[in-house]
Amino acid sequence: MLKAIGARSIDDLFAPIPPEYRLKRDLHVPKQMSEAEIVQWFKDRAAENADGYASFLGAGAYFHYRPVIIDALISRGEFLTAYTPYQAEISQGTLQSIFEFQSMICELTGMEVANASMYDGSTAMTEAAMMAVRLTGRKAAVMARSIHPEYREVLTTYARHQDMPVSSVGYQDDGRVKVAELEKYVDENCACVIIQSPNFFGTIEDVEAVADLAHRKGALLVVGISEAVSLGIVKPPSEADIVAMEGQGFGVPLGFGGPYAGVIATKEKFVRQMPGRLVGETKDSKGRRGYVLTLSTREQHIRREKATSNICTNQALIALMANIFMTVYGKGLKELARHNLAKAAYASEHFAKRAKVLFPGAPRFNEFVVESSEDPYVINSRLLEQRIIGGFPLRKFYPELGNAALWCCTELTSRAAIDTAVAAVAVSKEPLTNEAPEPEVVR
Amino acid sequence: MNERIKKATRHVNQNEGLIFEKSSPGKVAYKLPPLDVPDVDAHKLLGDLERKDLGNMPEVSEIEIIRHFTRMSTWNYAIDLGMYPLGSCTMKYNPRVNEHVARLDGIANSHPYQPERASQGALRIMQTLRECLMDITGMEAITLQPAAGAHGEMTGILLVRAFLQSKGNPRKKILIPDSAHGTNPATAAICGYSVENLKSNAAGMVDVPSLVAQMNEDVAALMLTNPNTLGVFEQEIHKIAQILHDKGGLLYMDGANMNALVGKVRPGDFGVDVMHLNLHKTFSTPHGGGGPGSGPVACKKFLEPFLPIPVVITKSDGTLGFDYNRPQAIGRVRAFYGNFGMFVRALAYIMANGPDGLRETTEDAVLNANYIRKGLEGVYDLPYNTPSMHEVVFSDRLQTKKGVKTGDIAKRLIDYGFHPYTVSFPLIVHGAMMIEPTESESKEELDLLIDALRNIAGEVEQTPEFVLEAPHTTRVSRLDEVTAARKPVLRWKP
């Protein structure tokens, strides 16, 4: 090949690189390993990761059963190793599957259009807020403190550089956003109200009431969903203007936090301000049905600095996992969701006998908050010895909640594990209080 | 005409409607285990917030689902079927051992919030990958958090902004060469900067006198892809860095084309301050029909305080953990720690190669691109004669005389059994045909591509209308994109 090119050596081909910058040593990376060694190295790492433990962690990442056909199908090279479907004639498989994904997301969220995916729930929520700013021509956003704290951090990071003031509103005794306080922030400068439902405490928000409040003042409502499976049994947030969703619960491995798949769904009239890829149905030159990426004049490769977002590569294969999961369960999502509801109801009822289950009065899905007299980190250490990972201590994000922890049960949580966890929580002695803090304003 | 097509033959593939059209009441593809806790009345627990029905969600059996997706999959082109010469996309082979290790239970099922002492394996994977990528780039700090290349760009530019802000002035502008990828200007805008175009010189490189003229105290950074989108190494890179640094600006490198450099030269050594990598390009993680990607951002020491939280650290007891206490951090760009599953795959790729393998990979990528260049020179117009690294950009100038454009040639290439090259990009080349073979391709596959493109050039001369109507062998012919955009149908309805 060198001869054909007319080069004497490989080094000739690197002549454009000034010699003084060329690397004259080997890279400091592990020496070449055989496949067997690589597999063993990762098996050893897997063993250091609480492999096989029962877990009560949710908080934005949910351990659901993954039907085996998901991996069987996404491992087909034609899906796994395909590029973004810009060349529609040889990408109909990916395109039709995205079209079905968009359709099912609409069906489940009560929205009219959905995109092909965003990076994750946190960036979907953030991009939804930016979309609301473009749609309303207003600058500010107000978000509930009961949104996943890391989602709020992401929103704050983006907002800081876009002159988007973001105010934060606390939660009520029932765990829902303080509607009375929201009123104060929703004014003629407010582009959107952002809530999450079920929220970070597992509480289902009164979406209708918040929507009324936002709409009265001409603001949009963005509803985040971090536990997709809740849609099987919880009324969809149809009153929202934009739904920003995390699809991980739909058959995506926990994978230490990613890759997951965010989605934005909205009303048809807002579609031209939507970020991300969209697949539309059309016909070919012979009148046959086919699918293409469409409305790309919103996107960076056409609009450059005037694009609705800089997003390019998204999470297509993960959206395909969610797509297959939704297809496997179909209408049975309701039964799956009911199992989650039942496990969490059983667990919260039993925890309530030994500790305080916070935020009574509003319905929950599969998560609930338990306040113990003992430090939850200590409880969790005890549980870890029994190969159980306890609830997520909330103190880190909500110092005012003291010894409270967020517990999650899914269809995979066994009654035996619940009983063991309940037994590990010491009976609370002190009276427990719940003082909501002053609202913080983030700029 | 068909006897010229050596790589592909037509074959039967199955028709398949939308899943909703196959649905019929009562079919199921799952079974839940019996509940081991008392069942609940959802209405009692949720009241009015209970969902009444699931509308048009499909009801199908398992075999129908398997066939549905398998049939659809056969309508896709993929690396596993052949070469994907998409310039700047680095569509290389995706090793299957990567997929295997990413699916090990202890890796796939680890929760991001499980205690650090029960996450040492995951943290070790992250730490090892960080060390590898820092050495590969010649950088001193890194975050793995960004989910894709464009997300990495944003993170990198936010680091620039935070650093400049800490010096008192975040500045106003980002300079971007006219050959840049569209995400660069879109990113600058998201980070609150205005964009100023920087023109290329006759050799396709940054025009240094223009840079000198445009560089001032308002410019925060230059976003440069190197090798650039023409596949040309910016030979005056150090001068470019110097010009920026002299006026207090920073040099951002878009690492989309890092596959031309790994093991041969390090951006940190030639003056780059901050850059992103695309693990789904250079480090072999699968593109998956449009993601997931992963876009780690590597930088020099002075930018480290600004990295997003959390950062992996080695604690005093020797275990690994996350550091959240970083007062100067830009914040967070996504929940949790990034696309961890891609870290696993990228690290497995690095291990399978080792230092020699990584260097040879780069050499083969550059060798393959130059072999294609030689094979097509004269047949297609080469707008820039500058030496090519890992990709080569031709134009359709010779073919437009017959009314055939780059997009038409690309569509005809499909009939020959290849995915098209990158069409009409970079924008500085009118009618661009951008070809990147990667190291994965054998000489046989490269020869087939050269042969196909030479044949198509002949067809353009003899039967241009045939090329204009391509592809001729696919399930669907060219699709009506105009109607799709004017009257969008974005979901199925009964």
How would you characterize this protein structure?
The complex is a heterodimer of chains A (443) and B (494). Chain A is an alpha/beta fold and 443 residues long. Chain A has 15 helices and 16 strands. Chain A has two domains: 54-64 and 331-435, Aspartate Aminotransferase, domain 1, CATH 3.90.1150; 69-329, Type I PLP-dependent aspartate aminotransferase-like (Major domain) (Aspartate Aminotransferase, domain 2, 3-Layer(aba) Sandwich). In chain A, the strands form four sheets. Chain A has an eight-stranded mixed sheet, with helices on both faces. Chain A has a four-stranded antiparallel sheet with strand order 11-12-15-14, covered by helices on one side. A two-stranded parallel ribbon of chain A has the order 1-13. In chain A, strand 5 (190-196), helix 10 and strand 6 form a beta-alpha-beta unit. In chain A, helix 4 packs across helix 12, helix 7 (121-136) packs across helix 8 and helix 13 runs parallel beside helix 15 (415-424). The longest helix of chain A is centred in the C-terminal third of the chain and has 19 residues, at 333-351. Chain B contains 16 helices and twelve strands. In chain B, helix 4 (96-102) runs antiparallel to helix 11, helix 6 runs parallel beside helix 11 (340-376) and helix 7 (149-166) packs across helix 8 (183-190). Helices cover 35% and strands 10% of the residues of chain B. In chain B, strand 4, helix 10 and strand 5 form a beta-alpha-beta unit. Chain B has helices spanning 19-22, 42-46, 62-73, 96-102, 105-108, 120-137, 149-166, 183-190, 208-214, 237-246, 340-376, 397-400, 406-415, 443-462, 464-468, 481-486; strands at 141-143, 173-177, 194-198, 219-225, 250-254, 274-276, 297-299, 311-314, 320-323, 392-395, 422-423, 432-435. Chain B has 494 residues and is an alpha/beta fold. Chain B starts with 18 loop residues before the first helix and ends in an 8-residue tail after the last helix. In chain B, 59% of the residues are buried. In chain B, the strands form three sheets. A seven-stranded mixed sheet of chain B has the order 1-7-6-5-4-2-3, sandwiched between helices. The chains are: A alpha/beta (443), B alpha/beta (494). Chains A and B meet through helix 1, helix 3, helix 4, helix 5 and helix 6 of A and helix 2, helix 3, helix 4, helix 5 and helix 6 of B.
